[in-house]
Amino acid sequence: MKEEFFIKRINSKHIGDDGAFIDGKVYASDSFFEDIHFKREWFELDEISYKASLVNLSDLIVMNAKPKYALIDIGFPKSLSLHEIKLLASGFNKAAKEFGYEIIGGDTIKNEKIAISMTFIGESKRPVFRKAKLNEYVAFTGDLGSVDRDLKTLLRGGKIPKTSKFITPKLRDEFFYKASKYITSACDISDGLFKELERISNISNVGYEFLKKIPKNMGCSGEEYEILFTFPKRNLSIISNLAKLTKTKITVFAVTKRGKYKSICKENHF
Amino acid sequence: MKEEFFIKRINSKHIGDDGAFIDGKVYASDSFFEDIHFKREWFELDEISYKASLVNLSDLIVMNAKPKYALIDIGFPKSLSLHEIKLLASGFNKAAKEFGYEIIGGDTIKNEKIAISMTFIGESKRPVFRKAKLNEYVAFTGDLGSVDRDLKTLLRGGKIPKTSKFITPKLRDEFFYKASKYITSACDISDGLFKELERISNISNVGYEFLKKIPKNMGCSGEEYEILFTFPKRNLSIISNLAKLTKTKITVFAVTKRGKYKSICKENHF
């Protein structure tokens, strides 16, 4: 994959997690581009800027970092009306208010298409990385599969419900901030469960013994923004209780073991 | 201007300077997009990533901040060869090595055109803002006008020298880091001297008495990445000495006074 080739050419020891943890701070950056991540007709303008914020926040949450500051680099076409620009700004402001961070800068340029890149600075006393241990339970939050199904519907020209997680990811901040101290490793499911399992396998030198069969339509569904995480078996009851307390569905589906795991999904990337 | 309308709709008290200064750190973000800021045929690929880095570093330098970390969000076409991707990465690495910062993350996506957004985190014990005082000297570094002239040559299909500041901005870090303690306000000249004078006028409630006439081809030339700065008159000799020491040309051309200043240049932005 060409993007992985580029990343390997960049000299950095921090790249590999959802964000970089340095001196108590977590730095994370994600892009959200028209015709790459979304089509204009699928979203209201405030939904675009809100989702751009959420996909970035997702990276911070899975590292157990609280967002403090954000910078927004945005390109948008001259043809947008002032009302439309107001909508675009309101999605950014809505997320900042809800998650309690401040927008401190960025850059605004004219561009044919809407192109958003955000950088977040968060704080964490106890960051969670992608390094799992042997003989741990492996679990994910929520239900998987709906995002890929909804995306396919949109690509066929169909309609999807306003509540679709493709439009508005459902972040699991309440559960994860409480549960993180009982969790060994985590990442958000942006490229599909199986692909994220492969990443954790590579970083941690573990394979998986599946306790439940995960069908391909669930395991290969990207942009779910649910959380994949591993934890010591002894923490099962406390984690189950925290899930209940925060009304978060979790599915324990595997145990880490010696070995290596490779995703069977077709790569979405180039 | 629509970009200013967008910025006004974003709730932030930090926006307005080249970067945001918070707790000893400076955060700055800038985009560098194909067909907005450059055409592919004008640059080698490593020159593109190197310039993208320099225009960001420029923001940190004028605030007297030393760059520590950078995040790179980059989109590039699938059609780039591995050799071309290597070149692209090498420009980022070159700037990081020269200016002593670490690339800690980012996002890589497929995009029709090259689209780079970078965020820098710097450190400053004594940041310089855009707020000038009355009766101060106003000066700029280097020579102005060549960038606009070279850009026009390129737009006409002509050739420009490899040493053009349009290809590789000449940052004044050595001079500015030494001189900053004698300087009241500064900004980099990204949108032309006259436009930057207008910004400092608005922020500082000052006008200018010109000691030298600045022709329009100098005052309206954007992307110069020279530094506009003001300082107390008593600091003239020390600043002149530091300029000589660092082989940096400076031109003292005005004095701040009561009033308001408006740029006479045509707006480049939308």
Automatic annotation (TrEMBL), chains A, B:
Domain PurM-like N-terminal: residue ranges: 16-123
Binding annotation for ATP: G106, D107, R130, S190
Domain of life (superkingdom): Bacteria
Pfam families attached to this UniProt entry: AIRS (PF00586)
Pathway(s) annotated for this protein in UniProt: Cofactor biosynthesis; thiamine diphosphate biosynthesis; thiamine diphosphate from thiamine phosphate: step 1/1
Residues given in the record as Mg(2+) 2 binding sites: D30, D59
Catalytic reactions of this protein: thiamine phosphate + ATP = thiamine diphosphate + ADP
One annotated GO biological process: thiamine diphosphate biosynthetic process
First-tier enzyme category under EC: transferase
Enzyme Commission number(s): 2.7.4.16
Keywords: ATP-binding, Kinase, Magnesium, Metal-binding, Nucleotide-binding, Thiamine biosynthesis, Transferase
GO molecular function term, any single one: ATP binding
Amino acids binding Mg(2+) 5: D191
Binding of Mg(2+) 3, residues: D18, D59, D188
Sequence positions that bind substrate: H37, E223
UniProt family annotation: Belongs to the thiamine-monophosphate kinase family.
PANTHER family: THIAMINE-MONOPHOSPHATE KINASE (PTHR30270)
HAMAP family: TMP_kinase
Physiological role: Catalyzes the ATP-dependent phosphorylation of thiamine-monophosphate (TMP) to form thiamine-pyrophosphate (TPP), the active form of vitamin B1.
Extra facts: Reaction mechanism of ThiL seems to utilize a direct, inline transfer of the gamma-phosphate of ATP to TMP rather than a phosphorylated enzyme intermediate.
Name of protein: Thiamine-monophosphate kinase
Organism the protein comes from: Caminibacter pacificus
